[in-house]
Design a protein that fits this description.
474 residues, Rossmann fold, GMP Synthetase, Chain A, domain 3, 2 domains, 12-stranded mixed sheet
Amino acid sequence: MNESAQRAEQLRGILETALNDVPAYAAWRRFDPGGGVSVDLRLACLPALSKAQMRTCGYAGLLPPGRDAVAALTRGEIELVHTNGTTGDRVANIWCQPWWDAAERASWELHATAQRVATGAHLEAILTSPFCAGVPCEDGYLSRQQRTLGRFLYLNERSDPATWTEAHMERMILELNEFRPAVLEGNPSFLAWLARHAVHRGHTPAPPGLLVLTYENPSPLQRRQMAATFGCPLASSYGSTEAGYVFMECEAGRLHQNTASCHVDFLPFRPEHGGPLLGRILVTTLDNPWRVLLRFDIGDVVRLADTPCPCGRRDGLTLAASAGRCVNLTLTPAGNAVTEHQVDLALASIAGLAEYRLEQTAAAVYRVQVMAEAKPPAALAAAVEAALHGVYGGAASIAVLPVAAIHPDPPGKFRRTRALFTIDPDRLLEPGSVPPVCVPNASAQGQYRLLPIQREIPRLSRGYVTTGTGSTQR
């Protein structure tokens, strides 16, 4: 049996287990066309699992048969954690560190530099919101020892880069030069903020072996700022707390599916909204011993690559880009979808633009905050307005407001685009791709004894995304 057939058989087994033995999916059985068709087609006929639905059934409703979470928690084999719920419902998760680590190791195989420097024993520095990974301290500062855990150094204890002082950023650069990590991982927005400070002060930090971008979707502006400062390869790592490591950017700049860890269904948008190469994804995990995750709506939009990747990898889906989260979608005045990535590309070539945030307040009304690096505010505003008219059209009313700082949303993730009204992502899909609606069985929760959440954020978990890059990201 070849590798593709083995994976299909593994996926078929997960599907059968989910529909027959996992309480959350009991109501899904009526959508299953049965074993007479391919497993891919069977999956395509099923509903999608949302975070809200995960809350309904609880972590216990997603347990594989024969698993005793209470006993495993007592032994310390697993933990219970909450995702932070930045862009959706907070979800209680069983955290299994060996599963997470295995998915991360598999993702390293998708980038040539990661294969070389990420040994599993390598030194790693992390620059992100401490509420995503690290130790928060908003009203003071922590010693380096307090921010070190094994081979990990958490550079930052503050969730908003706009509050970073010169001394705080100087400390980060000094610690990078002393620690010399093989991998520097973090939010693109946080890393770009530090990169701009380094350029302003004339610093050239000792380059890590690899810069891994996670928790958020990186923009071309941020990539340019980071590349100029850190002088090392960049790779975007895409996933989530629930699904693990889903895609990894290769050395050629495309994102490859982590087929050792997950299966991905692609739901194309209609042509007027950017399809068929643009669409949403649903993730099924393959090897988590403590959760059966089937067709999980990770909440992101991606663009498929339309040509083979120069790196030579052909397994699974290949993405030209992660296009941002569904909650970052905006609309043209004519009602066509615009992704965060489209806006990023439109603004990428504007010299002197450091960061931006665009909000759509009505059908044809857009408000944009811009942070300048060097360009005079009036000239910068005019360049941004012209670029955005190229995206949204001449009927768009665009107000550009220069600001000194753009602040992240709690708990420290930046959203560069958003509509201040609801956009139903199902309405953007090709009609045949819209998943049927079926709420998981809420009574599943009563079949298990649920324990209190032990901690808010897993200190050693670093994936998403942002998304994310953006995912990636929690």
